[in-house]
């Protein structure tokens, strides 16, 4: 049999596996993916080695099929076997990325923790970011923002009242703790997996950790694509919606330290992109949420360092050059939105009313 | 010149050797769910490639069982976009799917001229498909721009075409990925 015949057999099996996966029949899908991988290996053996593009595509296909079949060691073996060979650069890049994911899965399997289905992969690109490295403060800030959105998502799914102060409860933190794993090389990437509660079997746990990652992605996507329609359907509570929009906006880059952040499920190819354009769109939506404008208000923008805040007394203070400027009417700003900005450069959108600056919106100036 | 023709999303396995009956049927179901959200059949779709065309798409309204099976919007948009973009490439470029190959995160389609019977993928065009459900025209075009920018970085599997389907706005955009953005 020729390469084409073996490859077609593999395609047929992989297609059936995909349909099984969509129908929620994961074990049947994995068995079919394994058979497809074996067929793809037979195709490679039958191929004229001078057809290097086809060879590269087939090798990636075989390794990917073993990965989808959860046969991680076989995927590792195929990738390692072919990496030194004369296959095209794009195929080597994909095999390296696959190896990172395989090793991540093997490490997760050995960790003394159970992890919910579904990882979220986060890639930070451009600006000061290089392959495999990025400024520490940038990554720390983005990781904290991701963790905040994860915990908020868990609270939302558990029907917890919208939190304005302090950290998420211990119960929330222990039911779905986000972990960080090394992801495939390329820009700066990390993978977030949700650890299931250690006591999940003993106690009633209203939060399903495997739903947190899906919901997290749906909320981010709706916030970017359709904040007034789709997001309102997913998150009917206006306080939660406002917090999710602000946390998402603060996660999105302005384009200086990094140009874009790509977020996707490890199981899906489609990524959502957070860049300066998305950030602008989110900022506009957030400012439109504020409805107490007066006709004589004069809009203005202040840039400085957030030096003080008193959320109970409704003000913040910025250091602008050598002057302390007070902004009133901060209202209900939640700790995990404004807290990370203390002592950092911020942009505060205000309206001037009666000679005083009244708060509209605040965002990091990174 | 603006022309009006049919976007053939039904029975794609009969014209695309690289599509199995089950995948073609699955993609058609997903497309019908996405189309049903925003339009009534038949609906006009603008197709922007090297030229501008308006194609008419027709579908059977999905029953509640089918809509429930495709409740995950991301999965439905992705699979539905496959049907729409592959059909657009068939009409506008005269290319059909002759194969699929798996990647870690999904699968790539490979297309070649209708009637050609390649024995391998050496000269085939890789097709990158993406879908936008609620987004605007600008979002659809931005998605294509991102694909072009990505292809320009690193070592891409070229030659390739990118296609993005915007369901709400009724737009499909196609571009060669070796064209600078």
Whole-number mean pLDDT of chain A: 84
Task: Please report the two chains with the greatest interface, counting residues with C-beta closer than 8 angstroms to the partner's C-beta.
Answer: A-B, 57 and 39 residues
What are the segments of chain B in which pLDDT stays under 50 over at least 5 consecutive residues?
A: none
Biggest sheet details of chain B: 8 strands, mixed
Report the helical percentage of chain B: 25-40%
The SS-based structural class of chain B is alpha/beta
Number of strands of chain B: 8
Strand order of the biggest β-sheet of chain B: 1-3-2-8-7-6-5-4
Q: What global shape of chain B is seen?
A: globular
- How do the SSEs of chain A run, as a string of H and E? HHHHHEHHEEHHHEEHEEEHEE
What oligomeric state best describes the polypeptide chains here? Answer: heterodimer
How much β-strand is present in the residues of chain A? Answer: 15-25%
Please tally the helical runs of chain B, counting DSSP H or I stretches of 4 or more residues.
Answer: 4
Shape of chain A, please? Answer: elongated
Mean pLDDT across all amino acids of chain B:
89
Distance between the termini of chain B: 24 Å
Largest sheet of chain A: 5 strands, antiparallel
The Cα radius of gyration of chain A reads 24 Å
Q: Please bin the fraction of helical residues of chain A.
A: 40-55%
| Cα Rg of chain B | 15 Å
Number of helices of chain A: 12
């Amino acid at each position: 049999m020729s390469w084409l015949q073996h490859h077609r057999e593999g395609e047929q099996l992989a297609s059936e596996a995909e349909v099984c996966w969509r129908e929620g029949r994961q074990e049947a899908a994995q068995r079919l993916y394994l058979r497809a991988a074996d067929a793809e290996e037979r195709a490679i053996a039958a191929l004229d080695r001078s057809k290097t593009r086809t060879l590269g595509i087939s090798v990636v296909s075989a390794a990917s099929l073993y990965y989808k079949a959860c046969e991680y060691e076989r995927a590792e073996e195929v990738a390692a076997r072919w990496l030194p060979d004369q296959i095209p650069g794009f195929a080597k890049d994909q095999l390296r990325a696959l190896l990172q994911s395989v090793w991540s899965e093997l490490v997760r399997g050995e960790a003394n923790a159970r992890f919910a289905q579904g990882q979220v992969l986060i890639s930070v690109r451009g600006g000061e970011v290089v392959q495999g490295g990025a400024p520490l403060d940038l990554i720390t800030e983005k990781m904290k923002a991701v963790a905040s959105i994860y915990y908020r998502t868990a609270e939302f799914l558990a029907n917890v009242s919208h939190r304005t102060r302090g950290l998420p409860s211990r119960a929330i933190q222990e039911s779905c703790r986000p972990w960080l794993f090394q992801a495939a090389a390329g820009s700066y990437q990390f993978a977030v997996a949700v650890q299931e509660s250690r006591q999940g079997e003993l106690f009633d746990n209203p939060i399903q950790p495997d739903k947190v990652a899906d919901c997290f992605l749906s909320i981010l996507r709706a916030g970017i694509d359709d904040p007034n329609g789709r997001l309102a359907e997913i998150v009917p509570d206006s306080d939660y919606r406002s917090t999710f929009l602000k946390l998402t906006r603060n996660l999105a880059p302005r384009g200086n330290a990094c140009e874009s952040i790509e977020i996707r499920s490890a199981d899906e190819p489609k990524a959502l992109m957070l860049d300066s354009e998305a950030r602008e769109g989110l900022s506009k939506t957030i400012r439109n949420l504020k409805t107490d404008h007066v006709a004589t208000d004069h809009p203005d923008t202040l840039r400085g360092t957030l030096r003080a805040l008193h959320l109970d007394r409704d003000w913040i203070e910025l250091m602008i050059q050598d002057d302390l400027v007070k902004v009133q009417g901060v209202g209900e700003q939640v700790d995990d939105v404004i807290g990370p900005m203390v002592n950092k450069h911020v942009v505060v959108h205000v309206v001037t009313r009666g000679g005083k600056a009244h708060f509209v919106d605040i965002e990091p100036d990174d | 010149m603006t022309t009006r023709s049919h976007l053939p999303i039904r029975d794609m396995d009969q014209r695309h050797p690289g599509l199995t009956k089950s995948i073609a049927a699955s993609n058609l179901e997903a497309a019908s769910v996405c189309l049903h959200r925003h339009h009534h059949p038949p609906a006009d779709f603008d197709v922007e490639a090297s030229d501008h065309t308006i194609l008419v798409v027709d579908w059977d309204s999905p029953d509640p069982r089918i809509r429930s099976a495709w409740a995950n919007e991301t999965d439905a948009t992705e699979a539905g976009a496959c049907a729409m973009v592959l059909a657009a490439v068939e009409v506008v470029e005269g290319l059909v799917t002759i194969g699929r190959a798996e990647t870690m995160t999904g699968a790539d389609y490979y297309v070649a001229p209708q009637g050609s019977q390649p024995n391998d993928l050496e000269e085939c065009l890789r097709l990158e498909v993406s879908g936008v459900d609620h987004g605007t025209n600008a979002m659809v075009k931005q998605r294509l721009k991102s694909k072009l920018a990505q292809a320009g970085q690193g070592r891409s599997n070229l030659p390739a075409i990118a296609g993005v389907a915007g369901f709400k706005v009724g737009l499909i955009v196609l571009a060669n990925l070796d064209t600078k953005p």
